[in-house]
Amino acid sequence: MKSEKIHQSAFVLDSHCDTPIRLLNGASLSERGAEGHFDFIRMKEGGLNAAFFAIYTPNTLEPDAATRRAMQMVARTYDAVEANSDSVAVALSADDARENFENDKASIFLGMENGDPIQKDLSLLRLFYDMGVRYMTLTHARNNEICDSCAPKEKRWNGLSPFGLEVVKEMNRLGMLIDVSHISDEAFWDVIKNSDSPVVATHSCCRAIANHPRNLTDEMIIAIAKTGGVVQINFYPPFLNSDYAEKFWPLCDKFEEVEKLWKESPEKFQTQYDAAKAEMEALERPSYKEIVDHIDHVVKLVGPMHAGIGTDFDGIEVTPAGMEGVDKLPLITEELMVRGYNEDDIKMILGENFLRLLE
Ligand SMILES: [Zn+2]
Prior knowledge:
- By secondary structure, this protein is of the alpha/beta class.
- It contains 15 helices and nine strands.
- The protein folds into two domains: 3-241 and 286-358, TIM Barrel (Alpha-Beta Barrel), CATH 3.20.20.140; 245-284, no CATH class.
- It has helices at 3-9, 19-24, 40-45, 63-82, 94-102, 122-131, 162-174, 185-194, 218-227, 237-240, 242-264, 266-282, 289-302, 330-338, 343-358; strands spanning 13-17, 50-56, 88-90, 106-113, 133-137, 177-179, 199-200, 231-233, 307-309.
- Zinc ion (ZN) binds at residues 113, 181-182, 203, 315.
- The site of zinc ion has 5 residues, from loops.
């Protein structure tokens, strides 16, 4: 069978998409956007049937501000879906998503990236579950009240905090998936030890291929599989390829510095902003085929039941070459076919694995 046919008949799910950031800035998803990686038109073109919108808050916000921002992102997501109700619907379960699929509608799920918005209050966790949030990434780039992040050198808890342990238990009870992307290695192992339910990495690559603390070691991938969970491969080029990362990080740091100034006074710093952005984008990017290298690695370690995709679209400054937006997703299916994957395995990787966890 042709790869397009398989892609069209498969249930394709992206477990991590940062589009709500753009919704906060007033973006419309009804038209094909010149900016960003995702809109509902390209979602259909790419044969993507479900996307988890990340309710992302940076760790730098005060607790009330984090809660407020998260609620706004949930609300904007509901608004965006409602404005496109002929073609898109919110999904709260695998059944919802399959029903939407039958009715030729795409599904939007909610996931929360960083647990700061629940503050130190399990009833807020419950409230976000009731609003539709179906997974939570415990932290982001800093240590928080729940656990340590993989990013800072100095750790606060050396794993999960005592409150984090309660969060894990409550998420298990609610049926909210625990996402281990972004957390420290110690926190990862604490989650594995204490969770009664399958654990997921919604947007993480393999450390054996690209050595970065955001990526998972082989032992971690095996441990996730043992819980029955899945590793959803991230599309961010520096997580896919170490050689690229080495050249990319300094340019990215420089860009972020200029971006800060530019946000304060756009006119004054426009030229510098454009130059820094152009320099970052001029670096030759790894091919989208390297995404499949990481999928391959997971499959070789633990089999096709434990791999998937979590694009990180709209949360990344650059994309792999050939994978500039969600409309390009059929290329992943094509590459899996080239590498000899059969139809059943491809369908598992594209979405069935994650749906199984939601069931
Ligand atoms: Zn992330």
